[in-house]
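Chains adopt folds. We examine one example:
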Amino acid sequence: MSRKRLFIPEIKEQNYEIIHPEQIHYLKNVLRVKKGEEIIVLDGKGWEYKTEVKELSSSKIKVALKKEIFHPPLDYRITLYQSLLKNPKMDFLIQKISELNVDKFVPVITERSIKYDLNEKKIKNKVAHWEKIARFSASQSRRARLMKIESPVLIRKKMNECGNIDKTIVFLEEEQKNLKEVLVNLRDTKNISLFIGPEGGFSKEEIKLLKNQGIISASLGNQVLRSETAAIVVASIIQYEWGIL
């Protein structure tokens, strides 16, 4: 199986020309593809295309489609509602949870999270930057589907929108019940949402609102983890309990 993989959402034609400068650079200078070599092209929505490189130039790479494979959605899903973090922590987190097959990433604005400029253009550019990180991470980790990334939103809005509240977990330092105890009661659940707070934790008002929504609270033990570390640890533990890792 080729280890050279690239996400191109618009690929469809039998003979496709890759003309985006960033994609050409990645294939030629990072993956160092050669004429006649096989590369895997994915559309990010489950379709995998085995292709052969037919032409290489500084302005385009022409590939011929040889085989199509459809990967159905996974039976399990993790949605991460993560309090906004400073860079490079946010970039690092997105890279790692993409590797861990988190299905959807929702950055939330909390009372104690860092302050982002919510200018529409800047937010759009920030989300595009995060999507780029997730895309390259997915290429390296052999994901067939890209992680969905939403624009930052106030946590109060997501509390109200969050469905399946019996399958949503928030992590609080003062909670006595640990994650293992919580997961025992969610053994047959394959769709879990997680709320991870900022470095200073959720405010008292936010904790009250979360609990009023019936969201399950859990502890990560006596040690205090950084916000980005907690998200990676929890996603890993849940997948271990599911038998995936």
About this structure: The CA atoms of residues 34 and 53 lie 7 Å apart. The domain at 5-70 is CATH 2.40.240.20 (Ribosomal Protein L25; Chain P). DSSP finds seven helices and twelve strands in the chain.
